[in-house]
Amino acid sequence: MLAGLTKAVLETALEAEMSEHLGYEPHDRARHDSGNSRNGTRAKTALTEIGPVRIEVLRDRDASFDPVRTRATHASTTPAPTSRNHASA
Question: Where is this region: Disordered (predicted)?
Fold first, then answer.
C-alpha cells in the first residue's frame, strides 16, 4: 500500500513538472502545437526510503525533459560513492 501511494505521489509530481516544462497542462489543445509535447512514458525504478518503487516517467517529443524530482529522489536515498585518495609519503 505504501509503495502504491509513493508511486502516485511521484508520478503526480512528475506530471506537474512536465506541465511546467512544457508551459501547458495535459489535454490543453490551445498549446498542443507549441513545438514540444508529451510523448508517452518510460518505466524507471525510483529508490526510495521504503525500497524500490516502479514509476512511469513522462517523456517529451524533443527529449528535453529532465525530471528533477526523480533524480533528487534517487540521490537522496542512495549513498553517494566516496573516493579516498591516499597519497603515500
Answer: 20-48, 65-89
